[in-house]
DNA sequence: CAGCCCTGTGTACATTCGTACACATAAGCG
DNA sequence: CGCTTATGTGTACGAATGTACACAGGGCTG
């Protein structure tokens, strides 16, 4: 009797994933979310959840996949906008921060997941970061800014860069999105971190 | 009628805090722990919880305080054992890893708390890290290894070091405590990160 | 058009949760 | 000794949770 029109396929699934992200965006930790809570936020009946996910961990894994897309978009934009090596670091950090602001919940989920309770999610996020670092290493190789480094040392440098930026996430997500002053401070600090790392790379001599 | 002998004061409180840590050590996330769960693990009736803590966040805050003690102990040991600057980094990293292994649950709690859901716990852990970084900066100043840096740049360097080491935590806590090979890899990688940072610091010229 | 699958709903239930309350015992203190 | 305070236990209950099951309707394929 209740008339339901057919919605776009996968709509509820999206609603559920967005609901989880929304809750994460509201200071809630993903590990503490429940199925009922998420479906409530999504405006859907609890049992609908099982049509798309086996449990919350499963939903988390699918969020990691989407996170990968977000990161790739960010990488593409950075590649397009950072043309000359001059302001490379400043611009990259700025792009990162702007993406982190625009996808706050996603990045919160990422920061949480690094020490989350699902081993699979943890490994998924770690893997995304590794991929990101290896792409960064490729870009650096291509730009020939640090020509004297071995591949291995370049990988290490890229890894350290990605970690430092990722850690800045926890700073960024700890302040209000409107607090431009604090965000500017974080941007400056992150930039200096990366500059310090690159100075290190420029003067690095492989051990042995 | 049930005869209870008086235990050491604060014993139950310790049991509860240890119970929470134990659960965190078992891949559980602190944010997902419940009062009943913790009291069950502690072998105590649920209502006892309220004799010592207002809620789980409160317990978390008190754990942060204890975490401070653990960190201070580690710092003291590092200061005592790292006498000559020669192997400073290697030894410090080794001491860190050994402490992280010995207090695995504590450090897991710390890694989780950085992106946890209680703002107060988050801020507490961040504050411990700031303190740690400032102590490290003092030590570096005292050792006069990086004499040309301004105080501000030295603080930045120490901050980056602490962050890098903290991030290594998530690596470390992701592998089995018995997997000596992987742990060795993490130790080497962390060591090289710090070396890279110090090379950067040694060649750093303050902007402006 | 008939049938099936996919997706969403409603109901149901045992389990778990947080917490309130009353009570018991031991310690400290006058 | 008697009183207060701190700490622990037992019972209780309303609310929330995960999930099982039966059902409904639209879309696709035959």
Q: What does this protein structure show overall?
A:
The structure is a homodimer of 208-residue chains. The termini of chain A are far apart. Chain A has helices at 11-25, 35-42, 56-81, 88-102, 104-113, 119-143, 151-172, 180-202. Chain A contains 8 helices and no strands. Chain A has 2 domains: 9-53, Arc Repressor Mutant, subunit A; 68-202, Tetracycline Repressor, domain 2 (Orthogonal Bundle), CATH 1.10.357.10. Chain A is mostly helical. The A-B interface holds A 27-29, 31-32, 108, 111-112, 114-117, 119, 122-123, 126, 156-157, 159-160, 163-164, 166-167, 170, 173-174, 189, 192-193, 195-204, 207 and B 27-29, 31-32, 108, 111-112, 114-117, 119, 122-123, 126, 156-157, 159-160, 163-164, 166-167, 170, 173-174, 189, 192-193, 195-204, 207. The first copy, chain A, binds a DNA duplex (30 and 30 nucleotides) through helix 2.
Entry keywords:
DNA-binding; 208 residues; 2 domains; Tetracycline Repressor, domain 2; elongated; 69% helix; Arc Repressor Mutant, subunit A; homodimer; mainly alpha; 0% strand
Describe the structure concisely.
The structure is a homodimer of 208-residue chains. Chain A is mostly helical. Chain A is built from eight helices and no strands.
Subunit organisation of the chains: homodimer
How does the overall form of chain A come out from the CA principal axes? elongated
Number of domains of chain A: 2
| CATH fold annotation of the largest domain in chain A | Tetracycline Repressor, domain 2
Distance between the termini of chain A: 78 Å
Q: Main beta sheet of chain A, described?
A: none
């Amino acid at each position: 009797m209740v008339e339901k029109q057919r919605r776009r396929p996968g709509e509820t699934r999206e609603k559920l994933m967005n609901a989880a992200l929304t809750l994460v965006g509201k200071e809630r930790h993903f590990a503490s979310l429940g199925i009922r809570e998420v479906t409530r936020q999504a405006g859907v009946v609890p049992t609908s959840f099982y049509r798309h996910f086996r449990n919350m961990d499963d939903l988390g894994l699918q969020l990691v996949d989407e996170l990968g897309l977000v990161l790739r978009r960010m990488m593409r934009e950075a590649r397009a906008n950072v043309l000359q090596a001059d302001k490379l670091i400043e611009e990259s950090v700025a792009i990162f921060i702007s993406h982190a602001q625009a996808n706050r919940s996603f990045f919160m989920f990422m920061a949480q997941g690094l020490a989350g309770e699902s081993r699979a999610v943890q490994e998924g996020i770690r893997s995304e970061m590794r991929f990101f670092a290896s792409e960064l290493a490729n870009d650096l190789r291509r730009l020939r800014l640090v020509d004297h480094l071995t591949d291995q040392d370049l990988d290490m440098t890229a890894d350290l860069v990605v970690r430092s930026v990722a850690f800045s996430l926890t700073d960024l997500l700890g302040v209000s999105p409107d607090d431009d002053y604090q965000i500017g401070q974080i941007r400056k600090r992150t930039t200096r971190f990366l500059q310090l790392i690159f100075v290190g790379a420029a003067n690095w001599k492989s051990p042995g």
